[in-house]
Amino acid sequence: MSQSSSNILSNKYQIKNYFKLWYPGLVAFAQQFIKTESEAEDVVQNAFIKLFENFNGPKNIDSAKSFLYKSIRNECINIIKHEAVKRKHFLASEHESLSEKYFLQKLIEEETYAALTEAINELPEQCQKILILSLNGLKNNEIAEDLNISVNTVKTQKKRAYKGIKEKLQHVYFIVASLSGL
Amino acid sequence: MKEYIKSAKLISKHLLNRLPKEEQKQLKSALEDDINKQAYLSIKNNNQIEQRLNQRKKLDIDSAYNRFIEASERNRFKLSHIAIKYAAIASILLLIGLVIHHLSNVVTNELPTLANVTIQPGESKAILVLGNGAKINLDDDDNTSSLNVNGARISNSNNCLKYRNKTNNLSQTEYNTIITPKGGEYQLHLSDGTKVWLNADSELTYPVSFNGTNRIVKLRGEAFFEVAHNPDQPFIVQTQEQQTKVLGTSFNVSAYPGDKETVTTLVNGSIEARLNNINFIKTLLPNEQLIVNLQNLQTQTRQVDSYIYSAWKDGRFVYRNKELGEILEDMERWYNFKVTYDCETTKNYNFSIDIKKYDSFEKVIKLLELTGTIDLEVNGNILLAKSIV
Hints:
heterodimer, B: alpha+beta, Phage tail protein beta-alpha-beta fold, Jelly Rolls, about 30% helix
């Protein structure tokens, strides 16, 4: 399924069609604020429910995703503040996570990761391996050696992978764009 | 702000070693912005792609998804207009009802042996009434047969009645009517290509060929339409109080004479509904439903999962949090029995079901009794529903 920013949610029941696709990335995003995975999962669930309940008319999917990011961040901040109150002080790490800068930065990261993982997941297995090694910093000849294939193969596979990924990356921009209008 | 957009793109390209020389300068200046720099460094130095890929496999996305679906339906129930008299019981039953939804595909074998079961699921059967009043039985046993009527060729096979225009006879429009009894259903292809599924205990009157400015059919009961696209000749479904105008689309109309409401649900395309006696026009979008109260002509539009309302045409009974009274009313028409209740409150219990229509009635009973809240007794073709207190 290729998604462009012109996709519209005309009905709140269509939200479920994006749930499985967005869920892992959003959980990872929530974990940039609160460490526990199960807590992060709860926060993401709540965000989806809020999106569902507050749905009042056709919505661009990117702005729907922006809503989720904002909602998740807000609930995470509340949790952090709550814990801090109990402890009677903030942890050093928590201070940073309350800033808007942190929010935007983590957002860019997670959106990029999400786009990359989505694209990578769809590639044939060898293609995936090559791409992951490349992203880990290995050079073409190192990859070739590692996987026992020719450098040429590495180059052509990378080319093919990049083509598929480019499309997915278009997406990141619109999300960041709408949220930058914070 | 657009800078952040650009920088994400630059970062990704760079990570894949595909950043062209011209853009490298841009990346450099973008990275002078602290936010971009931090994001970039974070991904570059501590690449978590593999973790993300693994997490995707580790997370139980399916159960998270089911959790969301259940939660969203619970909320819808809260917002609905159905009056619940016994709130405490209702919320417990809601949970049990959802359990049934999951169990419905698991119920198998050990069926209670009911002696002399006379309640059977319905089948494909109907009566065709021609313009001259002649009645023809349409049922399973019929082999493929066809006849010519006033310029149209009608063929009957596979439980479907098909009309094919042979000549455009403009002199006199002949109307045919197809009637389904209780326990019957039938499919119909009109001469313009429109497909109609007619539910039990229903009646559709239509011209053999569509010669007018509009294509008009009259419905009593329930039918699902897949209208053939023709913008020059709008398709109109008339029911007792309402007219539904269609350009090319799929939708369900439920207008049984005994019902208090006419319910129109749109699957895809677009339709326009008008009421006969008052000034009211409403255009529906996919997955929207129009409910018209026939007594006071009040209208309500709401968003629904159209699958629930059209599943019958695909051979399933699907109900989400429906009252027993309404569920059994539908089933009465299909299984052809009569239901009596020990008291009014029994009708108010809620259930969620998703089962095949052609399954035996015993299966239905077993499913409904699983909740432990009601007891169903069959006597000939009478069903007695009792609350278990």
